[in-house]
């Protein structure tokens, strides 16, 4: 008998979109994620809450998450006499032969059944202002809706921009509105040994 939670891991969801800016794919397939892109995003000023992590820790971080990778699809021209598969690493190509270049991400830290924390929503600066961020969050919404036993989704956002954006796009609300029945508590960094 199959374990029902295996169906909820969401590792094979994908969406495609074409607009005036190009052709794009969003996928939850972990093998498509570009670790260098993710660490570069973590190092950017836009992701002020994050910082790059060593590769083994990044692998652990991603394996404990559902990560929606946002990719630009780029047509590939094979060298004469070579098969396309020989010119591309398999994880970076699509069934249509396009190369996938990661340009964004959104990550759910989750138990894959009842609880999810949305974090690390990012679109590379060169690809902003073309609706890709809103589309990425819409795909996050579909991912949330695909979890029938999900009790709560959490996120942290800036009060001026993030709060109204996520309220509009995901139906999120500030937990202050539930202050009589709920307190969300936080503690920042714990000191590492020797600090």
From TrEMBL:
Sequence ranges assigned to domain N-acetyltransferase in this UniProt record: 103-171
MF-aspect GO terms: acyltransferase activity, transferring groups other than amino-acyl groups
Region (Disordered): 78-98
InterPro entries, alphabetized: Acetyltransferase_Butenolide, Acyl_CoA_acyltransferase, GNAT_dom
Name under which the protein is recorded: N-acetyltransferase domain-containing protein
Organism: Hortaea werneckii
Taxonomic placement: Eukaryota, Fungi, Dikarya, Ascomycota, Pezizomycotina
């Amino acid at each position: 008998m199959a374990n029902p939670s295996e169906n909820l891991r969401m590792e094979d969801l994908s969406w495609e979109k074409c607009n005036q800016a190009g052709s794009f794919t969003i996928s939850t397939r972990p093998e498509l994620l570009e670790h260098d892109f993710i660490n570069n995003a973590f190092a950017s000023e836009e992701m002020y809450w994050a910082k790059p992590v060593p590769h083994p820790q990044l692998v652990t971080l991603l394996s404990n998450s559902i990560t929606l990778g946002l990719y630009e699809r780029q047509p590939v021209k094979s060298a004469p006499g070579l098969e396309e598969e020989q010119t591309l690493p398999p994880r970076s190509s699509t069934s249509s032969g396009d190369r996938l270049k990661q340009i964004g991400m959104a990550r759910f830290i989750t138990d894959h059944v009842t609880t999810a924390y949305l974090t690390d929503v990012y679109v590379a600066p060169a690809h902003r202002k073309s609706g890709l961020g809103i589309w990425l969050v819409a795909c996050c919404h579909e991912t949330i809706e695909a979890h029938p036993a999900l009790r709560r989704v959490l996120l942290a956002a800036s009060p001026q921009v993030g709060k109204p954006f996520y309220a509009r796009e995901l139906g999120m609300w500030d937990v202050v509105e539930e202050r009589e029945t709920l307190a969300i508590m936080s503690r920042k960094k714990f000191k590492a040994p020797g600090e």
